[in-house]
Amino acid sequence: MTNPLTTRENRFQVDTSIIRHLIFSQAGTLHKALLELVMNSLDAQCEKVLVDISEDMRSIVVSDDGVGFKTIDDIEKLFGTFGFDHQTEEELSRGRNYGRFGLGRAQCLAFGSTVWTSNQFTMTVDLKGNSSSDLPYIIQEHADIKHKGCKIELSLYDAMSVYDKRELLSVLRRMAKYVQTEVVVDGCRVNEDISSVKWSASNEDFLFLNANSQRGLSIYNKGVLVCTYSHSKFGVSGDITSIDKNFAVNMARNDVLITECELFKRIGGFIKPFAEKKTKKIFTDEDRKYWLAKLFSGQCVHADVSSKRLCQNADGKYATLRSMYQHANGILIAAPDRLLQNKGMLAHRRQEAFCLSASFLDMHGFNSLEDFVSDLNNALDSYHPFSKKFKAASFDDTVRNANDASVRLGEGELSKIDKVRLTAVQSMYSMLLEEMLEVEQSGNFDFRRHLSDVNEQSRVVCLGRSETSNGWTDGVNYIAINVDYMRDLFDRGYNGIIKLMGLLVHEQCHDSETMSSHFHSAEFYEKFHNVMRNINTFTIASKCIEKYLRECKKINRRLSDREMRKTFDTYEKLVGLAN
Fold first, then answer.
1. Do the strands 182-185 and 48-53 form a parallel or antiparallel pair, or are they unpaired?
2. Can you count the helices (H) and strands (E) in the chain?
3. In the predicted model, what is the mean pLDDT of residues 65-73?
4. Which of 290, 337, 488, 528 has the most Cβ atoms closer than 10 angstroms to its Cβ?
5. Helix 483-491 and helix 416-441: axis angle, to 10°?
């Protein structure tokens, strides 16, 4: 190899066309651009930031009473240069809280022409009005102070709509929620007075406000919103803001640089007590995702989650890890989709396998049941009750011989007491139809499609047998109730009758067959709950029980001690009708 003739070190350069492209490409929304201007004002140690929108919604003025630009040299270094070193001694002395890259102010230039007035200087920029690739801006120096601090007058290239203005106010209120300097938009303060907020917890780093919801945990960098993490990330929802330290954020300031931000790493320990004190009544799918993620990542052990029902079966019910293992000696299957969940539940009820719901694996980020079982076994490796390990079984092989046929029973297949109970249920169904029609006529919900006439919409209520369903319908002619389920509910007394009523309403609301797996839409649930809210459940259930007791007298059947103890309506009425 020959020696080079010359060697020299060069520097990469950026063409001004790239700067123009950078300005327009990083400008996502107008409210984000205005937030950048507000943060610049906060970095200038102002006491108040004002944002005013013109009546015609064609211009916006952002003004503050901070330090502003003091010299031409300041303007050229801090305004005319995009991207500069914020870690020099001079720049660190400015005490910025938010600025890191020297790019944020450029976003507003994409939305309109601007006039910047700061102390005795004005700077004018119009990127669309001046197509020159040199990106010029005009500086004027005046003999006197024009505005103490900085004022930016933004003349929009496209006027805002009423909706845009309303959204702008809402977003600024959310994004500048906890800044400690007053921010006023069109005469209204949009940020909170943090001294008056009833914080759920605080320490030298953070202020935390817990929220009883699933909206996620919003991260605020000294009061300015950075991003929101899902509830399952930390096991809680609410707002958390840093006090004196900054989160390390990306260039767009919409995410935390997790691996290098030490402040972010301290959040988990700070809010952990709020995740751990969740009660069973408010335990949600997001909480389950949080705890399973902690278990799989080694941040907790089985003892921490032993009482938590984390895993959902295909019937929608939740189980602890221990009960999931004990159900079928650790054998697991997962329903491939909603349509096959009934077959999976048949194997589940026979205790051939614990059948996970069709959505469970996807919800927790697993590509396959084998991946889930592998991670679960690794997480529980040191926990002796699970020494035999969970096992992933083939769904198809497990349910291959499963027969989920639901059959209706003829009258000759029913016992005397089954016939009596069916008569009572049929009378309850007739009362339900009449009340459902009244709900329609009162305007609470439109049931004309299937309740315009009681006789027309009436279906035959019968009994049947099924290993997968408590009740089913063809959507037109009949509603079948699993005879074993009906017997169990009658044994439960009044509460059981209420459950039967809910089953009848549920099947009546279906206008297609439910013998195979089927999907419940939001519209269906709205319809069902609207009926249940508006019918007189107590009266219907009481009359059903009275009908049952009278039918028992007709066949000279005395109530069992168990039935006597269940107090269908009132104990006195029960005894009076039974004797």
1. parallel
2. 24, 22
3. 88
4. 290
5. 90
pLDDT at residue 94 is higher than 70: no
CA within 13 Å, CB half, 46: 28
Q: Is the pLDDT of residue 456 over 90?
A: no
- The per-residue b/e assignment along 217-252, b for 16 or more CB within 10 angstroms, e otherwise, is bbbbbbbbbbbebebbbbbbbbbbbbeeeebebeee
**CA angle at 534 for the pair 533 and 539, rounded to the nearest 5°:** 100
AA identity, residue 199: W
Query: Measuring CA to CA, which residue among 186, 152, 166, 114 is closest to residue 37?
Result: 152
Nearest to 473 by CA among 489, 486, 459: 459
Model pLDDT, residue 229: 92
Chain mean pLDDT for the chain: 83
Q: How far is CA 276 from CA 207, 285, 321, in A?
A: 19, 15, 17
pTM exceeding the 0.70 threshold for the entire prediction? no
> What pLDDT, on a 0 to 100 scale, did the predictor assign at position 572?
44
Beta-strand ranges (E) seen in 120-272 are 121-125, 138-141, 147-156, 182-185, 188-189, 201-202, 206-211, 217-221, 224-229, 237-242
Long-range contacts of 260-267 (CB under 8 A, 24+ apart): 263/205, 264/219, 266/205, 266/206, 267/206, 267/219, 267/234, 267/240
What is the model's pLDDT at position 312?
92
Instruction: State residue 285 phi and psi, 5-degree precision.
Output: -60, -35
Does residue 106 carry a pLDDT above 90? Answer: no
Residue 501 backbone dihedrals phi, psi, to 5 degrees: -60, -45
Number of neighbours of residue 339 by Cβ within 10 angstroms: 13
Contacts of 431 (CB under 8 A, 6+ apart): 540, 543, 544
pLDDT for 314 equals 86
**pLDDT number for residue 340:** 79
Asked if residue 469 has pLDDT above 50, the reply is yes
